[in-house]
Design brief:
Layout: E1 2-8, H1 14-30, E2 36-44, E3 47-56, E4 59-67, H2 70-93
Parallel strand pairs: 1-2
Antiparallel strand pairs: 2-3, 3-4
Length: 108
């Protein structure tokens, strides 16, 4: 998983970088096919905003969250991405298995 971090009006500290890496490691526990993750951190007045785009085979997932605290915004973002990854994984795994293949369908 390639992780690209960028900040608008914000310097990305090593502690913040480690926190984001640890939170996004949870995504690879669910789905191994994560290719690329781009995270943008920004501060607008008193609101901390985090946006992420994840590239998986055949799909791009995007989520954003904002909060008064940067760490809680990252937590919210990780939860949103986790739900999206599980949904993609479910679609990826269930492809043509709900009713069986054409060979295995009942004729009648």
């Amino acid at each position: 998983m390639n992780l690209h971090l960028s900040g608008h009006h914000l310097e990305i500290t090593p502690a913040l970088r480690d926190y984001i890496q640890n939170k996004l490691e949870r995504l690879t526990n669910h789905f191994d096919h994560v290719i690329d993750v781009k995270v943008t951190l920004s501060v607008e007045k008193l609101i901390h905003k985090v946006e992420a785009t994840i590239h998986v085979p055949g799909n791009d997932l995007h989520a954003e969250s904002s909060d008064d605290n940067m760490y809680s915004a990252i937590d919210l973002l990780a939860d949103k991405l986790d739900r999206q990854i599980l949904k993609v994984k479910e679609k990826f795994a269930d492809h043509h298995r709900a009713h069986g293949g054409v060979k295995h369908q009942a004729v009648g």
